[in-house]
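Hi all, posting the design record for the shared folder.

TITLE: backbone redesign
STEP: 1 of 1
STRUCTURE INPUT:
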């Protein structure tokens, strides 16, 4: 049972690949996930990019094309989180590990992409960022510094620092409710957020297809597909809000 949240309660929501699964995007560690067919060391580290940038570009080009497939759209779980933000303005923060833009397309505004964004790139030489909705290659020249070979996906690779960790830490310390949706809880620092929120006194809930690695750390764990669980959970929350 959810605790009654006061009118100025804050909610921090961590999402992972599972929230986008029913939109048609792959997860990473499920049996049919990305890491079941591609090695992290070959495509998702700075060393991989130095060693074989062509392979890394091919990996992200394929994922970018997949994301831009018209069949890939936000699902009811993404839309439910937007409804929560709109009914509880200024009190809801979504921190996503996902590099897809489904939360953005659904209309989420208070949103942090802690692992970067697939539709953005930057130049390793001059650090200039830009949008990218096509394929990238080692031949591409940075439009800013005119140098070749530096353009890379704006994605946080293993061994690199996730984005906006200060803001995330502050939000976790201030949270009254922490939700974790569609993540296996295997990758830090995100996997440590539940402990931080709990230590700050937040009520913590896991909404996932199956128990994650950190399931026992949560006050509540509800299992099933996100597109069913999240709208139902938000409806219950807003129902409380309506009477608060
Ligand atoms: N609804 C809810 N949860 C689901 C669904 C679904 N339809 N389908 C799968 N899941 C759950 C799985 O049970 C699993 O626990 O989503 C979780 C996905 O876990 P991972 O594949 O490990 O993805 P994630 O936790 O987001 O990975 C974290 O690891 O490889 C890095 O940078 C990458 O951001 C990624 C990070």
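Okay, here is what came back for every position:
SEQUENCE:
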């Amino acid at each position: 049972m959810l605790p009654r949240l006061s009118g100025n309660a804050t909610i921090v929501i961590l999402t992972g690949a599972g929230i986008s699964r029913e939109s048609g995007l792959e997860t990473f560690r499920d049996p049919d996930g990305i890491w079941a067919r591609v090695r992290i060391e070959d495509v998702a580290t700075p060393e991989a990019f130095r060693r074989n940038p062509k392979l890394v570009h091919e990996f992200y080009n394929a994922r970018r094309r997949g994301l831009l497939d018209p069949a890939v759209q936000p699902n009811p779980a993404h839309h439910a989180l937007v409804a929560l933000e709109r009914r509880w303005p200024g009190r809801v923060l979504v921190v996503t590990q996902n590099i897809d833009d489904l939360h953005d397309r659904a209309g989420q505004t208070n949103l942090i992409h802690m692992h970067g964004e697939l539709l953005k790139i930057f130049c390793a030489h001059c650090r200039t960022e830009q949008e990218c909705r096509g394929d990238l290659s080692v031949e591409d020249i940075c439009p800013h510094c005119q140098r070749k070979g530096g353009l890379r996906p704006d994605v946080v690779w293993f061994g690199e620092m996730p984005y906006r960790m200060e803001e995330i830490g502050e939000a976790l310390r201030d949270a009254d409710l922490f939700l974790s949706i569609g993540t296996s809880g295997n990758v830090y620092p995100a996997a440590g957020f539940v402990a931080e929120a709990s230590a700050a006194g937040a009520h913590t809930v896991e909404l996932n297809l199956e128990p994650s690695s950190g399931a026992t750390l949560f006050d509540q764990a509800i299992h099933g597909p996100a597109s069913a669980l999240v709208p139902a959970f938000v409806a219950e929350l807003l129902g409380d809000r309506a009477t608060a």
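COMMENT: The pocket of adenosine-5-diphosphoribose is lined by residues 16-18, 21-22, 27-30, 33, 97, 115, 182-184, 186-187, 208-210, 212, 225-226 (CB under 6 Å).
Let me know if anyone wants the other runs.
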